[in-house]
Design a protein that fits this description.
The complex is a heterodimer. By secondary structure, chain A is mainly β. Chain A has no helices and eleven strands. The chains are: A mainly beta, B mainly beta. Chains A and B meet through strand 4, strand 5, strand 9 and strand 10 of A and strand 5, strand 9 and strand 10 of B.
């Protein structure tokens, strides 16, 4: 089965600093990959999804960007963090044409 | 645009009781309807899922009921246990495998 590795698990960053969250996938090739953000006690907001290397779709306009340099690597970045970027970030993936989404353990970002 | 609407936002049920969570969708192109369970500080995990060619699927104490004509599906947790306390998300999936989640329901099972 597919496994999603995500790091770092927790991160405290000052406003205006850069961000890089990394996600790697094991157990499948050419998966669809996703970045979600979850505010405290709230639902899952889809930020980006990718169907292949270099192919990124943004779901919401924001201060963040995503890249997929390799088939099983997905990176979430920001050049300058805002307070509103705080949240729980989840990487997820599913094999092509299957609905089961596998999630990583999440990265909790606090911007101060 | 919200593709799936989930209710209630929160639910308190006594141990042994039945928890019911409902979801409604608009797009008839969706072809896979999963439910995810999330414990605090963890990523969601697939609990149970159904395809639109069946009206019900049961796995242990968890049952999905699916009403294609009404474009609604629900999760029933029978004999609820304190270990079932979690946030539950319904989702809809299009033919490309892209998921959109409901807003989530926080379930608390009291001893």
């Amino acid at each position: 089965s597919q496994t999603i590795h995500q790091w770092p698990a927790t991160l405290v960053q000052p406003v205006g600093s850069p961000l890089s969250l990394e996600c790697t996938v094991e157990g499948t090739s050419n998966p669809n990959l996703y970045w979600y953000r979850q505010a405290a006690g709230r639902g899952l907001q889809l930020l980006f999804y990718s169907v292949g290397i270099g192919q990124i779709s943004s779901e919401v306009p924001q201060n963040l960007s995503a890249s997929r340099p390799q088939d099983r690597q997905f990176i979430l970045s920001s050049k300058k963090l805002l307070l509103s970027d705080s949240g729980f970030y989840l990487c997820a993936g599913n094999p092509v044409n299957t609905g089961e989404l596998f999630f990583g353990e999440g990265s909790r970002l606090t911007v101060l | 645009q919200q593709q799936v609407k989930q209710s209630p936002q929160s639910l308190i049920v006594q141990k042994g009781g039945i928890s019911i969570i409902n979801c409604a969708y608009e797009n008839t192109a969706f072809d896979y309807f999963p439910w995810y369970q999330q414990f605090p500080g963890k990523g969601p995990a697939l609990l149970i899922a159904i395809r639109p060619d069946v009206s019900e699927k049961k796995e242990g104490r968890f049952t999905i009921s699916f009403n294609k004509s009404a474009k609604q599906f629900s999760l029933h947790i029978m004999d609820s246990q304190p270990g079932d306390s979690a946030t539950y998300f319904c989702a809809v999936t299009d033919s490309w495998g892209k998921l959109q989640f409901g807003a989530g329901t926080q379930v608390v099972v009291t001893p």
